Amino acid sequence: MTAPSIDIALFTSDQARAIDRRATDEAGMPGYELMNRAAASAFAMLRRRWPAARRLRVVCGTGNNGGDGYLVARDARASGCEVVLFALGEPRPGSDAERARRDFEKAGGVVHPWGPPTEPADVIVDAIYGTGLNRAPEGVAKAAIEAMGTEGAPILALDVPSGVSADTGACPGVAVRAEATACFIVHKRGLHTHQGERAGAIELFDLGVPASLRGTPDAHLLQPATLPPRPRDAHKGTNGHVLVIGGDHGTGGAARMAAEAAARTGAGLVSVATREENVLAMNAARPELMARGVDGPQTLAPLLDKASVLALGPGLGQAAWGHALWTTALDANLPTVLDADGLNLLHAEPRDLPGRLVITPHPGEAGRLLDRSTADVQDDRFAAARELARRFRATVVLKGNGSLVATPQGAVFVCPWGNPGMASGGMGDTLTGIIAGLLAQGCDATEAACLGVGLHARAADVAARAGERGLLAGDLLEPLRRLLNGRED
């Protein structure tokens, strides 16, 4: 796998606060100095993004995020902007936020208690919570957030949109939907999965804090990557043989989509073990796929002997036919991508699994495997993905907005690509085939999952240039091929 050397590290809110303390204690950077740098960076970002803005509304909470807001307001007034500032309460006495409020007032600013705005604003600055909230906003904060969402003015959030969890991307109640977010010192992991998209365009400002103070990040953001060029003497035998097992009555399309995706990813050979009724259609539509009708373990066994990687589950079903093939395939102990009904069968019947395994659950499937609700999984996707990887000793792809790849060692990678057009049938089958194709070409489980998730989402973004609605899983295959060959267009 080839990728740029740039690494975008993601941190939890606890880690971010610890870095703040080390910046003060070890690097001699007072908190108020960092607050001033944050405000200056955020206001510069505001001016770049909305150069014509003259009327600003700043909404400040009682903590340090509110302190950032007071100083943004101070700097905006100094530049000639008209500023209306609402405070949702008093800062803690002696805090940096209280000092920031005094500086704003000394510069001629007026602090208003919260009330429904009567004048329009060109830009609204959200400085209510930052990283300091993991519950539903209440009272005046809830009212202020709701008011922001009804005005139509663009919102610049400071560090984290208020109401969005900096750790999980969950929104337990009302939350700001920002057009842009000025993130300080380190990237917060929750802004890159689940509902973290409410941050809009994110810009990071390190505020001069040395990278040596950051420590080990909690997760990493995936970067664009592809496979290296093939050697000139490559042949089909050196690029692996994927066997897709699935396609019960009425679901042959799932197996075909997975198989075609594996082929387009570059697997040397792709076979399909499916119901006999699907074979003619597959051979007619895509003759490169070697489709075989199988009626049970005895007819599956010769195909397993020739395969190097299995894609197990697309359209498999959970009846006797699917269960028999599932058991036989897992007993072969080949590198396997387990998806769809392969995961549903695993929930119903725990068993030993292959040593090289990638599982690709959506939140509902993840919840069943963990005996939790889908909502519980979404409340902390990072914890759910890590627990699945630990429990099944597998590389896990937890699908969804900001898909996560988790390893049994606890590493997590977050996908920054993808779009709502991917909410259509067959997308998961295509991802299964892509990951299987990468395993067949020599990637280890983590490489195949990370590269596969990234290529799948990037191909969907290219395909969605024609529109997100109506996007089909098959539309990803041509851009997938171009991306694999180093073409970005």
UniProtKB/TrEMBL annotation:
Where does the chain bind K(+)?
N65, D126, S162
Q: Which residues form the YjeF C-terminal domain?
A: 219-487
Recite the UniProt cofactor note for this protein: Binds 1 potassium ion per subunit.
Which keywords label this protein? ATP-binding, Isomerase, Lyase, Metal-binding, Multifunctional enzyme, NAD, NADP, Nucleotide-binding, Potassium
Tell me the residue numbers annotated for binding (6S)-NADPHX.
64-68, 130-136, 159, 254, 315, 362, 429
Catalyzes what? (6R)-NADPHX = (6S)-NADPHX; (6R)-NADHX = (6S)-NADHX; (6S)-NADHX + ADP = AMP + phosphate + NADH + H(+); (6S)-NADPHX + ADP = AMP + phosphate + NADPH + H(+)
Judging by the UniProt lineage, the source's domain of life is: Bacteria
Q: Key word Transport present in the record?
A: no
**Which cofactors are required for activity?**
Mg(2+); K(+)
Give the Enzyme Commission number.
4.2.1.136, 5.1.99.6
A Pfam family this chain is assigned to: YjeF_N
Q: Which InterPro entries match?
A: Carbohydrate_kinase_pred_CS, CARKD, Nnr, Ribokinase-like, YjeF_N_dom, YjeF_N_dom_sf
Q: Where does AMP bind?
A: K399, G400, N401, G402, S403, G428
What NCBIfam families does the annotation carry?
yjeF_cterm, yjeF_nterm
The task this protein performs is described as:
Bifunctional enzyme that catalyzes the epimerization of the S- and R-forms of NAD(P)HX and the dehydration of the S-form of NAD(P)HX at the expense of ADP, which is converted to AMP. This allows the repair of both epimers of NAD(P)HX, a damaged form of NAD(P)H that is a result of enzymatic or heat-dependent hydration.
Q: How does it assemble?
A: Homotetramer.
Q: Which HAMAP family match?
A: NADHX_dehydratase, NADHX_epimerase
Q: Which family does it belong to?
A: In the C-terminal section; belongs to the NnrD/CARKD family. Belongs to the NnrE/AIBP family.
Protein name in UniProt: Bifunctional NAD(P)H-hydrate repair enzyme
Q: Which organism is it from?
A: Luteibacter sahnii
Gene field: nnrD
